[in-house]
Amino acid sequence: MELFHEFRGILAPELVRLLASLQERRTLPDDLRAILNKDAVYNAVRLAAFDLYDDVDFDEWFTNVLSVELKVKDDNYRIIRRRVCQLIGQWCGVRASQSLRPAMYEALLEPLARRGEDPAVKLAAAEALRSTVDDFNFDLQQFAPYAPHVLSALYDLLVESEECDTKMHVLHVLSYVMERGGRAAGGHAPLFDYLPQLWVHAASHNMLRAAVLSTVVNLVKALGECSPNVRPWILGVVSEATRLTEPAHVYLLEDALELWLALLETATVADPTLLQLAENLCPILNQTTEHLRIVVYIMQAYTLLCPEEFVLGAGGKCMAILEDMLSDMRSEGILAILKMAEICVSVTYPERNIYLGVTVVWPILKRAIKSIISGDELAMVLSVQLCLVSRVILLASDLFYKAVHEVATSLPDLGYDAAKVLGRLLDVWTMKLNLITQVERCKIVVLALAALLTTENPIVIQRFPAILLNITEVLNDVMKSDDGGGYVDGLVSCGGSRPASPLEGRGGAARWEAWGERAGTAHDARRRRLAAAHPAHALDLRAVAHHQLETLKNQVGPKVFEELVQSVDHETLQQIREYIPL
């Protein structure tokens, strides 16, 4: 290819001439020499595809020549059929019009599904199909009518294949088609029946088993559910592949974790086997941080599915391990752990364990308070730390004050004085609020400040001007004019907005659908319920602030309250009075 690039001006016209000469005469199936000559020219055109972009009209060539050659069933012509498949796979991403895609799918399906076709041709067709869906211009609607037939043909090829490497290759294509096709690819029921057999057959071939796991992941995601018939097998496979005492975990762990997450996302209830499986998380966290991100996603999925059972069991142990790891973490890891802690506090627990989430993240909460006081964290980390503390305040301010008192016992620089610790915390909080870029996070943080106003704490009252300034700034951000000329909280009234997600990250555990769309999986539905209860979405900031200020006025009396109001600068008062009467 370097030779072609270097001498393109000489070689390109000659290659185009050779290609044109092939079209002038018919290649007979029994003329092996002519077939091999055509194969060589086709291969050269395939390799030089990008250099021949302006010289070859692929649409015309495919329609009039290549698609016809794929239909020639003569045994000798299998050489050309294989090469044509490779040509299509290469040129689909170089120069093939969007309208040609359905014809390409249909043409490739013919050799792939043909009974008695040479395995090499079928493999080439499978790889070409993978290339057609692995394309920037891939259109799912165009592919959807062919998806079931593609899966059926690939399944047949998988069963027919005897070599492990061939099975791995076919599984790779299957996985990719299901990943790109999603629900349109559907599930292929016989595939679910065959994969357990293949798993047993591949007992001594760990790479093939890894390919099986990857295929099951995409199959479960494509279906959006896990068939009850294969669920026990999948649970057993995940358990085996995530046990660090099993030597095979070196090859299987990554794919097994993905399958575990997919299983949780489709689960509607947590059965004892699924809960028992969670015990495998702690050894993984203890061994390495390599899989931290997906382990945290799995923990989040468990917490949304069965909060009390998970947090009282393996979840609590995992949170203790994560807290111990915080001191050695980079900012990405710290954010993942803090968001996990925020989830623990955000979900709803039974009345008997209503504060269970705060209990399990207690060491992380205290560490967050100390970190905020130090004022050294990056803005993004500070933002999530303040949100975690705010969640606790909105849930139970007494627990917040208890945490502050415990933090004070480890801060000699502040004289072990809880009042000084609280003062320092509020000073950093109110000064650095403008570092929070997400308006939803800003809102929950000032909701917590408003909640503290009525806790009758003199340290909080001393910061009244700063707190009122913060509330005013966020009111300016969230309040929108309505049709009647008044103001409404945009985050509450706007159906299209979404609260800041502690689940943000990679893959299905992280993606938010457009607000109001029907959830795709059981996990999506659980996330929506959590989002609906998010304070930024559920509480009107103006109403809350007004209520808290009125309550404070009743607590301290009109005279003292007026003195507090007069301590606020004129510009802040002027702005807040647009929303709240003072």
Automatic annotation (TrEMBL):
<dbReference type="GO" id="GO:0005635">
    <property type="term" value="C:nuclear envelope"/>
</dbReference>
<dbReference type="InterPro" id="IPR016024">
    <property type="entry name" value="ARM-type_fold"/>
</dbReference>
<dbReference type="InterPro" id="IPR011989">
    <property type="entry name" value="ARM-like"/>
</dbReference>
<dbReference type="InterPro" id="IPR058669">
    <property type="entry name" value="TPR_IPO7/11-like"/>
</dbReference>
<dbReference type="GO" id="GO:0005829">
    <property type="term" value="C:cytosol"/>
</dbReference>
<feature type="domain" description="Importin-7/11-like TPR repeats">
    <location>
        <begin position="211"/>
        <end position="579"/>
    </location>
</feature>
<dbReference type="GO" id="GO:0006606">
    <property type="term" value="P:protein import into nucleus"/>
</dbReference>
<dbReference type="Pfam" id="PF25758">
    <property type="entry name" value="TPR_IPO11"/>
</dbReference>
<protein>
    <submittedName>
        <fullName>Importin-11</fullName>
    </submittedName>
</protein>
